[in-house]
Design goal:
The chain is an alpha/beta fold and about 325 residues long. The chain contains 13 helices and twelve strands. It is elongated and about 60 Å long.
Length: about 325
């Protein structure tokens, strides 16, 4: 080829480079979002906080990141199938809400990064080897709800000094059910309270559980953390106000809906942190370098209207200690 002809070919090829580069659009990363419940108001509140965390790291849904949602509709047996769909969809990071979803993710993949949001101890659950430096492909957020069980029983006793028997509402289908039983028993061992365990594995079980508690004349109820209960927080909150049973919950949502009292970490803050972690992983950070986030702030919420309905006088000490009093 003559020099003049080579220059013409080179210049022509160079002129085409911008068009070729423009044709190759960057691939938008996909986040797999796995939730055991349905898209209720409680779930959407968590989602909003999660998205705010993503935004803080520079990711906006629909602009530079895609979120592939999967809702198990309270059927934990569907979680493995939904997880498989997310992996086939080439999710770059999976966000697994609650222990059943986290365990399904652990069983499904050892390579795709997973950020979990759970209520219990992730080391005891086998999700990570260490809180400070997780190994493998999993890290996330824990609210360590089991460590608050003793405090919740103590608060219930302060609010209802005459209580001697406490009903404990649990979901037997949750993988943590057995450990929760022993944790509640341990929390109550330092008190004179007797425990009556009641099961609810679907929303239709709530009425019968509360009816049983009334029939057995329990003095109060402790609702153990579970995604099924979170998904029905409004219904359970109203129910604990409708039945003459002083009930303590693990989230503020229940008390806003009519429940008596809650003592918990700020779920929105923790979910926000989970969103930040997912964004940081998308930016290239290693899971092993992201320690499991633990709660540092807790809030006490009391529904004064419900207390009056139940004929209870809230001690001044609790009113002063409360972060929020709903009247």
């Amino acid at each position: 080829m003559r020099r003049r002809d080579f220059i013409k070919v080179f210049v022509g090829s160079a002129a085409a480079w911008p068009f070729a580069a423009g044709a190759q659009q960057p691939v938008t990363p996909v986040i797999g979002f796995l939730y055991p419940g349905s898209a209720t108001s409680a779930a959407t509140d968590q989602l909003k906080a999660f998205l705010n965390g993503l935004n803080e790291v520079g990711y906006v849904e629909g602009r530079n990141v895609t979120i592939d949602y999967r809702w198990a509709e309270d059927r934990y047996d569907r979680l493995p199938e939904l997880l498989a769909e997310l992996i086939r969809g080439q999710a770059k990071v999976i966000y697994a809400v609650a222990l059943p979803a986290a365990l399904a993710a652990m069983a499904a993949t050892k390579t795709t990064p997973v950020v979990f949001f759970i209520g219990g101890d992730p080391v005891a659950a086998g999700l990570v080897s260490s809180l400070n430096r997780p190994l493998g492909n999993m890290t996330g957020v824990t609210v360590f709800s089991e460590t608050l069980l003793a405090k919740r029983l103590e608060l219930l006793k302060q609010l209802v000094p005459t209580v001697s028997t406490v009903a404990v509402l649990m979901n037997p289908k949750n993988p943590n059910a057995e450990s929760r039983v022993s944790e509640v028993q341990k929390a109550a061992s330092h008190t004179e309270l007797r425990l009556q365990f009641l099961n609810a594995s679907t929303g239709s079980d709530f009425s019968s559980a509360f009816a049983t508690a009334v029939q057995q004349r329990v003095g109060g109820m402790l609702v153990v953390d579970d995604p099924l209960f979170s998904n029905h927080s409004e219904e359970l909150g109203m129910m604990s106000a409708r039945y003459p049973i002083p009930t303590i919950h693990f989230r503020r949502d229940f008390v806003v809906a009519g429940g008596l009292i809650s003592y918990a970490t700020r779920y929105a803050d923790m979910t926000h942190q989970a969103g930040i972690y997912v964004g940081r992983i998308l930016k290239g950070e290693k899971v092993a370098d992201l320690p499991v986030v633990q709660p540092t702030k807790f809030e006490l919420v009391i529904n004064l209207k419900t207390a009056k309905t139940l004929g209870l006088t809230v001690p001044q000490s609790l009113l002063v200690a409360a972060d929020e009093v709903i009247e």
